Amino acid sequence: MANKHLSRPGPRILIGSIIILILIAIFFSVRTPPIDVDVAKVVEAPLLVTIDDEGETRVRDMFVVAAPINGRLLRVDLEAGDQVVAGQTVVARMMPAQPDFQNPRSEAEIRAHVRALQANVRSSAARISQAKADRALAAANFERTDAIFKRGFATKTAHDAAIAARDSSVAQVTEALQALETAQFDLKAAQASLMGPSFSNSRGNALDITSPESGSVLRVTQESETLLTAGSTIMELGDPEDIEIVTDLLSSDAVKIKPGSDVLIDNWGGDRPLKGKVERIEPFGFTKISALGVEEQRVNVVIDFVDPQTARARLGHGYRVIVRLVEWSGDNVLQVPISALFRDSGVWSVFVMREGKARLVPVKVGRMNDERAQILDGLEAGTSVILHPSEKIDDGTSISLRTSSR
After folding, report:
1. Is residue 172 within 8 Å of residue 135, measured between CB atoms?
2. What does the alpha-carbon distance between residue 76 and residue 209 come to, in Å, rounded to a whole number?
3. What is the per-residue burial (b if ≥16 Cβ within 10 Å, else e) of 307-345?
4. What's the CA gap between 222 and 208, in Å, rounded?
5. How far apart (Å, rounded) are the C-alpha atoms in residues 214 and 219?
6. How far is Cα 321 from Cα 266, in angstroms, rounded to an integer?
7. Which residues neighbour 169 within 8 Å (Cβ) at sequence distance 6 or greater?
8. Which residues contact 291 (CB under 8 A, 6 or more apart)?
9. How many CB atoms lie within 10 A of CB 141?
10. Residue 149 near residue 159, CB atoms below 8 Å
11. What's the pTM?
Protein backbone atom coordinates (compact mmCIF):
# COMPACT_ATOMS: atom_id res chain seq x y z
CA MET A 1 0.00 0.00 0.00
CA ALA A 2 1.35 3.35 -0.90
CA ASN A 3 1.80 5.92 1.89
CA LYS A 4 -0.43 9.08 1.59
CA HIS A 5 1.05 12.37 2.81
CA LEU A 6 -1.32 15.25 3.93
CA SER A 7 -0.36 18.65 2.61
CA ARG A 8 0.14 21.44 5.14
CA PRO A 9 -0.42 25.17 4.55
CA GLY A 10 2.62 27.12 3.65
CA PRO A 11 4.27 29.68 5.90
CA ARG A 12 2.90 32.57 3.84
CA ILE A 13 -0.70 31.52 4.26
CA LEU A 14 -0.28 31.12 8.01
CA ILE A 15 1.34 34.51 8.42
CA GLY A 16 -1.40 36.13 6.32
CA SER A 17 -4.14 34.62 8.48
CA ILE A 18 -2.46 35.91 11.64
CA ILE A 19 -2.20 39.41 10.20
CA ILE A 20 -5.89 39.41 9.21
CA LEU A 21 -6.91 38.35 12.73
CA ILE A 22 -4.76 41.10 14.24
CA LEU A 23 -6.31 43.72 11.95
CA ILE A 24 -9.82 42.57 12.84
CA ALA A 25 -8.98 42.79 16.56
CA ILE A 26 -7.53 46.27 16.11
CA PHE A 27 -10.66 47.40 14.21
CA PHE A 28 -13.04 46.26 16.89
CA SER A 29 -10.86 47.69 19.67
CA VAL A 30 -10.75 51.19 18.20
CA ARG A 31 -14.29 51.17 16.85
CA THR A 32 -16.64 53.48 18.88
CA PRO A 33 -20.25 52.28 18.87
CA PRO A 34 -23.09 54.87 18.68
CA ILE A 35 -24.32 56.18 22.05
CA ASP A 36 -27.96 55.53 22.85
CA VAL A 37 -29.81 58.76 23.65
CA ASP A 38 -33.31 60.01 24.46
CA VAL A 39 -34.63 62.87 22.35
CA ALA A 40 -37.56 65.26 22.36
CA LYS A 41 -39.04 67.58 19.77
CA VAL A 42 -38.90 71.34 19.89
CA VAL A 43 -42.57 72.36 20.00
CA GLU A 44 -44.76 75.44 20.04
CA ALA A 45 -47.25 75.18 22.89
CA PRO A 46 -48.65 77.15 25.84
CA LEU A 47 -46.14 77.81 28.61
CA LEU A 48 -46.80 78.79 32.21
CA VAL A 49 -44.15 80.15 34.57
CA THR A 50 -45.44 79.73 38.11
CA ILE A 51 -44.32 80.23 41.68
CA ASP A 52 -45.27 77.11 43.64
CA ASP A 53 -45.73 76.89 47.38
CA GLU A 54 -47.92 75.36 50.07
CA GLY A 55 -51.11 77.13 51.09
CA GLU A 56 -53.77 76.72 53.75
CA THR A 57 -57.50 77.32 53.49
CA ARG A 58 -59.22 79.49 56.08
CA VAL A 59 -62.67 80.89 56.69
CA ARG A 60 -62.79 84.42 55.36
CA ASP A 61 -64.56 85.91 58.40
CA MET A 62 -63.89 83.91 61.57
CA PHE A 63 -65.48 84.94 64.86
CA VAL A 64 -64.00 84.12 68.26
CA VAL A 65 -66.47 83.72 71.12
CA ALA A 66 -64.74 84.82 74.33
CA ALA A 67 -65.80 84.96 77.97
CA PRO A 68 -67.35 88.40 78.64
CA ILE A 69 -66.84 88.19 82.43
CA ASN A 70 -64.81 86.37 85.02
CA GLY A 71 -66.77 83.33 86.06
CA ARG A 72 -67.56 79.67 85.69
CA LEU A 73 -68.27 78.35 82.19
CA LEU A 74 -71.02 75.75 82.13
CA ARG A 75 -70.51 72.73 79.89
CA VAL A 76 -70.77 73.58 76.21
CA ASP A 77 -73.24 71.36 74.36
CA LEU A 78 -72.30 72.44 70.82
CA GLU A 79 -69.79 70.48 68.72
CA ALA A 80 -67.72 71.32 65.66
CA GLY A 81 -69.97 71.44 62.60
CA ASP A 82 -73.17 72.47 64.43
CA GLN A 83 -75.13 75.30 62.82
CA VAL A 84 -75.69 78.57 64.70
CA VAL A 85 -77.89 81.61 64.04
CA ALA A 86 -76.75 85.13 64.83
CA GLY A 87 -78.36 86.55 67.97
CA GLN A 88 -80.49 83.43 68.57
CA THR A 89 -78.36 80.37 69.23
CA VAL A 90 -76.98 80.23 72.79
CA VAL A 91 -73.44 78.98 72.29
CA ALA A 92 -72.33 79.12 75.96
CA ARG A 93 -73.51 79.99 79.48
CA MET A 94 -71.49 81.48 82.33
CA MET A 95 -72.03 81.96 86.03
CA PRO A 96 -70.53 85.13 87.55
CA ALA A 97 -67.37 84.59 89.56
CA GLN A 98 -67.77 83.91 93.31
CA PRO A 99 -65.46 85.56 95.88
CA ASP A 100 -62.51 83.53 97.08
CA PHE A 101 -61.94 82.28 100.63
CA GLN A 102 -59.95 84.64 102.86
CA ASN A 103 -56.89 83.37 104.69
CA PRO A 104 -56.75 84.12 108.47
CA ARG A 105 -54.33 87.01 108.08
CA SER A 106 -56.37 88.74 105.37
CA GLU A 107 -59.61 88.16 107.26
CA ALA A 108 -58.14 89.70 110.45
CA GLU A 109 -56.99 92.74 108.46
CA ILE A 110 -60.41 93.15 106.87
CA ARG A 111 -62.21 92.83 110.22
CA ALA A 112 -59.92 95.48 111.71
CA HIS A 113 -60.64 97.70 108.73
CA VAL A 114 -64.38 97.15 109.24
CA ARG A 115 -64.14 98.21 112.87
CA ALA A 116 -62.22 101.33 111.83
CA LEU A 117 -64.90 102.20 109.33
CA GLN A 118 -67.62 101.64 111.91
CA ALA A 119 -65.86 104.12 114.17
CA ASN A 120 -65.62 106.52 111.21
CA VAL A 121 -69.40 106.22 110.68
CA ARG A 122 -70.02 107.09 114.33
CA SER A 123 -67.63 110.00 114.09
CA SER A 124 -69.33 111.27 110.94
CA ALA A 125 -72.72 111.06 112.66
CA ALA A 126 -71.36 113.08 115.60
CA ARG A 127 -69.99 115.75 113.22
CA ILE A 128 -73.48 116.05 111.74
CA SER A 129 -74.92 116.90 115.17
CA GLN A 130 -72.15 119.46 115.72
CA ALA A 131 -72.72 120.97 112.27
CA LYS A 132 -76.45 121.27 112.90
CA ALA A 133 -75.83 122.99 116.25
CA ASP A 134 -73.43 125.43 114.58
CA ARG A 135 -76.01 126.07 111.89
CA ALA A 136 -78.71 126.88 114.52
CA LEU A 137 -76.33 129.23 116.36
CA ALA A 138 -75.32 130.99 113.14
CA ALA A 139 -78.97 131.40 112.17
CA ALA A 140 -79.83 132.95 115.58
CA ASN A 141 -76.85 135.32 115.41
CA PHE A 142 -77.87 136.41 111.95
CA GLU A 143 -81.45 137.19 113.06
CA ARG A 144 -80.21 139.33 115.98
CA THR A 145 -77.59 141.11 113.85
CA ASP A 146 -80.08 141.73 111.07
CA ALA A 147 -82.62 143.22 113.50
CA ILE A 148 -80.22 145.72 115.03
CA PHE A 149 -78.69 146.47 111.60
CA LYS A 150 -82.10 147.56 110.37
CA ARG A 151 -82.39 149.94 113.35
CA GLY A 152 -78.95 151.34 112.63
CA PHE A 153 -77.15 149.95 115.65
CA ALA A 154 -74.94 147.40 113.77
CA THR A 155 -72.30 148.04 111.15
CA LYS A 156 -72.39 146.73 107.61
CA THR A 157 -69.33 144.58 108.31
CA ALA A 158 -70.99 142.84 111.24
CA HIS A 159 -74.09 142.19 109.15
CA ASP A 160 -72.05 140.65 106.31
CA ALA A 161 -70.13 138.48 108.75
CA ALA A 162 -73.41 137.12 110.18
CA ILE A 163 -74.64 136.23 106.68
CA ALA A 164 -71.37 134.46 105.86
CA ALA A 165 -71.45 132.51 109.12
CA ARG A 166 -75.02 131.40 108.45
CA ASP A 167 -74.28 130.21 104.89
CA SER A 168 -71.09 128.47 105.97
CA SER A 169 -72.92 126.54 108.66
CA VAL A 170 -75.46 125.30 106.11
CA ALA A 171 -72.64 124.06 103.87
CA GLN A 172 -70.95 122.32 106.79
CA VAL A 173 -74.15 120.39 107.54
CA THR A 174 -74.34 119.23 103.90
CA GLU A 175 -70.65 118.21 103.96
CA ALA A 176 -71.15 116.25 107.17
CA LEU A 177 -74.13 114.39 105.71
CA GLN A 178 -72.11 113.44 102.60
CA ALA A 179 -69.18 112.30 104.74
CA LEU A 180 -71.50 110.05 106.73
CA GLU A 181 -72.92 108.52 103.52
CA THR A 182 -69.40 107.91 102.17
CA ALA A 183 -68.34 106.25 105.43
CA GLN A 184 -71.41 103.99 105.31
CA PHE A 185 -70.62 102.89 101.73
CA ASP A 186 -66.99 102.16 102.66
CA LEU A 187 -68.22 100.08 105.58
CA LYS A 188 -70.56 98.04 103.34
CA ALA A 189 -67.75 97.39 100.84
CA ALA A 190 -65.44 96.19 103.61
CA GLN A 191 -68.14 93.97 105.07
CA ALA A 192 -68.76 92.48 101.60
CA SER A 193 -65.10 91.38 101.51
CA LEU A 194 -65.89 89.02 104.39
CA MET A 195 -68.55 87.19 102.37
CA GLY A 196 -67.53 83.64 101.44
CA PRO A 197 -68.24 81.86 98.15
CA SER A 198 -71.70 80.48 97.51
CA PHE A 199 -72.11 76.78 96.81
CA SER A 200 -75.53 77.10 95.22
CA ASN A 201 -76.02 74.94 92.13
CA SER A 202 -78.75 77.17 90.81
CA ARG A 203 -78.21 78.26 87.21
CA GLY A 204 -80.91 80.89 87.24
CA ASN A 205 -78.34 83.72 87.24
CA ALA A 206 -76.31 82.28 84.36
CA LEU A 207 -75.32 84.68 81.57
CA ASP A 208 -76.32 83.44 78.10
CA ILE A 209 -73.79 84.07 75.33
CA THR A 210 -75.41 84.13 71.88
CA SER A 211 -73.76 83.60 68.50
CA PRO A 212 -72.38 86.81 66.95
CA GLU A 213 -72.79 85.45 63.40
CA SER A 214 -74.69 82.80 61.48
CA GLY A 215 -72.64 79.85 60.30
CA SER A 216 -71.05 76.77 61.83
CA VAL A 217 -68.99 75.93 64.88
CA LEU A 218 -65.43 75.50 63.62
CA ARG A 219 -63.74 74.55 66.88
CA VAL A 220 -64.64 74.34 70.57
CA THR A 221 -61.63 75.27 72.68
CA GLN A 222 -63.37 74.98 76.07
CA GLU A 223 -65.92 72.19 76.23
CA SER A 224 -66.02 71.13 79.89
CA GLU A 225 -67.17 73.23 82.82
CA THR A 226 -64.29 75.36 84.05
CA LEU A 227 -63.34 78.75 85.50
CA LEU A 228 -62.45 81.41 82.94
CA THR A 229 -61.19 84.96 83.03
CA ALA A 230 -62.74 87.64 80.86
CA GLY A 231 -61.42 87.39 77.30
CA SER A 232 -60.66 83.65 77.34
CA THR A 233 -61.56 81.89 74.06
CA ILE A 234 -64.52 79.51 74.20
CA MET A 235 -65.07 78.61 70.54
CA GLU A 236 -64.53 79.76 66.96
CA LEU A 237 -67.39 80.33 64.50
CA GLY A 238 -67.55 80.93 60.76
CA ASP A 239 -69.05 79.98 57.42
CA PRO A 240 -67.08 76.98 56.05
CA GLU A 241 -68.43 77.65 52.56
CA ASP A 242 -66.87 81.11 52.44
CA ILE A 243 -63.17 80.24 52.48
CA GLU A 244 -59.97 81.63 51.01
CA ILE A 245 -56.35 80.49 50.80
CA VAL A 246 -53.32 82.10 52.41
CA THR A 247 -49.74 81.23 51.48
CA ASP A 248 -46.49 82.79 52.64
CA LEU A 249 -44.12 83.45 49.74
CA LEU A 250 -40.53 84.55 49.82
CA SER A 251 -40.50 88.33 49.54
CA SER A 252 -38.39 88.01 46.37
CA ASP A 253 -41.18 85.92 44.81
CA ALA A 254 -44.04 88.06 46.13
CA VAL A 255 -42.83 91.11 44.15
CA LYS A 256 -43.18 89.12 40.91
CA ILE A 257 -46.96 88.77 41.21
CA LYS A 258 -49.79 91.25 41.60
CA PRO A 259 -53.46 91.25 42.67
CA GLY A 260 -55.58 89.57 40.02
CA SER A 261 -52.89 87.09 38.94
CA ASP A 262 -54.18 83.64 38.02
CA VAL A 263 -53.59 80.76 40.42
CA LEU A 264 -53.83 76.99 39.96
CA ILE A 265 -54.78 75.11 43.15
CA ASP A 266 -53.49 71.54 43.15
CA ASN A 267 -53.08 68.57 45.51
CA TRP A 268 -56.24 69.53 47.39
CA GLY A 269 -57.82 66.07 47.11
CA GLY A 270 -59.90 66.52 43.99
CA ASP A 271 -59.44 64.96 40.56
CA ARG A 272 -58.48 68.24 38.86
CA PRO A 273 -56.83 71.54 39.84
CA LEU A 274 -59.03 74.43 40.95
CA LYS A 275 -58.74 77.99 39.66
CA GLY A 276 -58.15 81.05 41.79
CA LYS A 277 -56.96 84.64 41.69
CA VAL A 278 -54.66 86.65 43.94
CA GLU A 279 -56.92 88.81 46.10
CA ARG A 280 -54.26 90.79 47.92
CA ILE A 281 -50.60 90.83 48.88
CA GLU A 282 -50.10 91.97 52.46
CA PRO A 283 -47.84 95.05 52.65
CA PHE A 284 -45.59 93.78 55.42
CA GLY A 285 -43.26 90.82 55.68
CA PHE A 286 -42.19 88.62 58.56
CA THR A 287 -39.26 86.37 59.37
CA LYS A 288 -39.75 82.60 59.25
CA ILE A 289 -37.27 79.84 59.99
CA SER A 290 -37.17 77.24 57.21
CA ALA A 291 -36.88 73.49 57.74
CA LEU A 292 -33.12 73.84 57.20
CA GLY A 293 -32.85 76.47 59.95
CA VAL A 294 -32.43 79.40 57.53
CA GLU A 295 -34.11 82.73 58.27
CA GLU A 296 -36.40 83.72 55.41
CA GLN A 297 -38.33 86.92 54.85
CA ARG A 298 -41.84 85.98 53.77
CA VAL A 299 -45.06 87.75 52.79
CA ASN A 300 -48.65 86.51 53.13
CA VAL A 301 -50.58 86.30 49.87
CA VAL A 302 -54.37 85.82 50.03
CA ILE A 303 -56.00 83.87 47.19
CA ASP A 304 -59.70 83.77 46.33
CA PHE A 305 -61.44 80.88 44.56
CA VAL A 306 -62.78 81.33 41.04
CA ASP A 307 -64.52 77.96 40.73
CA PRO A 308 -68.00 77.70 42.30
CA GLN A 309 -68.42 76.34 45.79
CA THR A 310 -69.81 73.06 44.47
CA ALA A 311 -66.45 72.28 42.85
CA ARG A 312 -64.66 72.59 46.19
CA ALA A 313 -67.40 71.40 48.54
CA ARG A 314 -65.05 69.03 50.34
CA LEU A 315 -62.59 71.74 51.33
CA GLY A 316 -62.87 73.16 54.85
CA HIS A 317 -61.04 75.43 57.23
CA GLY A 318 -57.32 74.72 57.72
CA TYR A 319 -56.86 72.32 54.77
CA ARG A 320 -53.48 72.05 53.00
CA VAL A 321 -53.19 72.75 49.26
CA ILE A 322 -50.47 73.47 46.70
CA VAL A 323 -50.81 76.84 44.95
CA ARG A 324 -49.17 77.69 41.63
CA LEU A 325 -49.24 81.45 41.11
CA VAL A 326 -48.85 82.39 37.44
CA GLU A 327 -45.93 84.78 37.02
CA TRP A 328 -45.96 84.68 33.19
CA SER A 329 -47.87 82.85 30.47
CA GLY A 330 -47.73 82.50 26.70
CA ASP A 331 -49.83 80.68 24.09
CA ASN A 332 -47.58 79.69 21.16
CA VAL A 333 -44.20 79.53 22.82
CA LEU A 334 -41.25 77.75 21.20
CA GLN A 335 -39.94 75.52 23.99
CA VAL A 336 -37.77 72.55 24.94
CA PRO A 337 -37.49 70.43 28.09
CA ILE A 338 -35.01 72.00 30.50
CA SER A 339 -33.25 68.62 30.71
CA ALA A 340 -31.89 69.31 27.21
CA LEU A 341 -30.18 72.56 28.26
CA PHE A 342 -26.64 72.91 29.56
CA ARG A 343 -23.97 75.57 29.82
CA ASP A 344 -21.10 75.56 27.31
CA SER A 345 -18.52 78.27 27.96
CA GLY A 346 -21.18 80.25 29.82
CA VAL A 347 -23.70 80.02 26.97
CA TRP A 348 -26.93 78.03 26.98
CA SER A 349 -26.62 75.18 24.49
CA VAL A 350 -28.29 71.96 23.32
CA PHE A 351 -27.31 68.93 21.29
CA VAL A 352 -29.52 68.28 18.27
CA MET A 353 -29.71 64.99 16.38
CA ARG A 354 -28.71 65.31 12.71
CA GLU A 355 -28.01 62.29 10.47
CA GLY A 356 -27.02 60.08 13.40
CA LYS A 357 -24.63 62.68 14.82
CA ALA A 358 -24.86 65.00 17.84
CA ARG A 359 -24.46 68.64 16.87
CA LEU A 360 -23.79 71.42 19.39
CA VAL A 361 -26.16 74.38 18.99
CA PRO A 362 -26.03 77.52 21.15
CA VAL A 363 -29.47 78.91 22.00
CA LYS A 364 -31.01 81.98 23.57
CA VAL A 365 -33.30 81.10 26.49
CA GLY A 366 -36.21 83.20 27.72
CA ARG A 367 -38.69 82.23 30.43
CA MET A 368 -38.54 78.83 32.07
CA ASN A 369 -40.39 76.79 34.65
CA ASP A 370 -39.51 73.56 36.42
CA GLU A 371 -39.99 71.47 33.26
CA ARG A 372 -39.68 73.54 30.10
CA ALA A 373 -37.82 76.59 28.79
CA GLN A 374 -38.68 79.18 26.17
CA ILE A 375 -36.31 79.32 23.17
CA LEU A 376 -35.89 82.79 21.69
CA ASP A 377 -33.23 81.94 19.10
CA GLY A 378 -31.22 78.99 17.78
CA LEU A 379 -33.85 76.29 17.20
CA GLU A 380 -36.89 75.63 15.07
CA ALA A 381 -40.05 73.69 15.82
CA GLY A 382 -39.73 69.98 15.06
CA THR A 383 -35.99 69.75 15.75
CA SER A 384 -34.95 66.76 17.87
CA VAL A 385 -32.86 67.66 20.93
CA ILE A 386 -30.99 65.23 23.13
CA LEU A 387 -32.24 64.87 26.71
CA HIS A 388 -29.83 64.57 29.61
CA PRO A 389 -26.66 64.69 27.46
CA SER A 390 -23.77 62.93 29.21
CA GLU A 391 -20.10 63.89 29.16
CA LYS A 392 -19.51 61.19 26.54
CA ILE A 393 -21.42 63.22 23.96
CA ASP A 394 -19.59 65.89 22.00
CA ASP A 395 -20.09 67.71 18.76
CA GLY A 396 -20.01 65.03 16.04
CA THR A 397 -20.47 62.02 18.35
CA SER A 398 -22.35 59.11 16.75
CA ILE A 399 -25.67 58.55 18.45
CA SER A 400 -28.61 56.24 18.09
CA LEU A 401 -32.18 56.78 19.17
CA ARG A 402 -33.16 54.77 22.25
CA THR A 403 -36.66 55.98 22.95
CA SER A 404 -38.75 59.01 22.25
CA SER A 405 -39.85 60.11 25.71
CA ARG A 406 -41.78 63.14 24.55
Report:
1. yes
2. 11
3. eeeeebeebbbebebebbbbbbebeebbbbbebbbeeee
4. 16
5. 15
6. 6
7. 131, 134, 135, 137, 138, 139
8. none
9. 16
10. yes
11. 0.64
